[in-house]
Amino acid sequence: MIRVKGIREGLLFLLEEGNWEENRRYLLKLVEEREAFWRGAQVALDSRSVVLCEEEILALKDYLSQRGLTLWAVLSDSPSTQLAAQKLGLATRLNRPPKDKVPSLSTIVHDGEEALLINKTLRSGYRVEYAGHVVVLGDVNPGAEIIASGSIMVWGRLRGVAHAGAEGNTQAIVCALDLQPTQLRIAGQIALTPQRKGKPQPEVVRLQNGQLVAQPWNAKDR
Known about the structure:
By secondary structure, the protein is of the alpha/beta class.
């Protein structure tokens, strides 16, 4: 019922037409039968016309993770499935660049601290990891991810996943002209963004008393 193909990024599981429950049972059986063989693989799922909700994708992601597999992408003919995958920070297409190679990057130094300047929009599937601050002159779309040991500043719309202070820096901040991430983390604290009310405005998020707090972003913020 399920085909498995080897791709540059790892494995591609292709579902057959039908409902998710039938495909899920077969997929779990397939993984369990060859668990040692699959372990460590990067996995993309092509659900084709099978519709998946956010909870179903998350359950599959957790199941695979427990067996040493990483689900990084969900391809689908269904717009609702694509949206559910993007909300979880997953890519929705295969042409993902290597996570340590993003076009049009340059390194700048400010006040003795290194920062990575990304002079373009990060689209779904991009993953950036950097030991320092990350500055994006563009948007961060759903399905894109930034992980920084320092702060993250987006001169545009932040709608993907942002993890600042990834090595435990509780002084790190996340700021954007339009702050609507699918997931936001600072150090060990994580938060999902509530539905926006009113017009977007520049905001900065920082840790205060162990909680993530969003405030207006102005010239005094550093």
